[in-house]
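Reviewer 2 asked us to include a model.

Predict the structure of this chain.
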Amino acid sequence: MLACLLLGAAGVDEQTAFRKLGTIEAGAAAPGSRFAFTPAEVNAWFRAEGRARVPQGVRDLRVDLGAERATGYATVDFLKIQKAATGQEPGWLMKNLFAGERPVVVTARFASRDGRARVDVERVEVSGIAIEGRTLEFVIEDYLRPTFPDVVVNEWFGLKFGVERFTVGPGGVSVSVGTTAKQIPK
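Predicted model (structure tokens):
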């Protein structure tokens, strides 16, 4: 019985998150409006997007929100993800270092203003081993960008759908629609 209630609540949070996002993406948000996404809605959206974008190779997704930061957790099979995304067999290094499922923790800092945003990956842990600095840069350039070319990290990019800014905090994510419906290119 409790499991049914929890699954139902997760479904409601997912529906609510996607309804709010749908309003923003359709351009139906009134200029100057704000949308508040609860941590439960953010997590429901995160899990749904994970299932949709990477149906094989990722499970147990969740995110913890903090002041201008988020930490995401997942169990990841990097080889399955790369094969599914690119159709190519992973190289020797990937096979030997990242074979099998690994617990992964990613912490990122978020900033936005004037219709632009930035997501800076601060730290990645794979199987409890921290990846930072030049090694993290290597992973982003040689694994993340080729596998997911539409992902933008560590640089400013334009927000779409008239979004002026967003804020990330322990209480959730707040999205503000600008007073004019302008789209800023990437």
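Helices lie at 2-25, 39-53, 78-86, 92-98, 133-147. The two ends are 47 Å apart (CA to CA). We have added this to the supplementary material.
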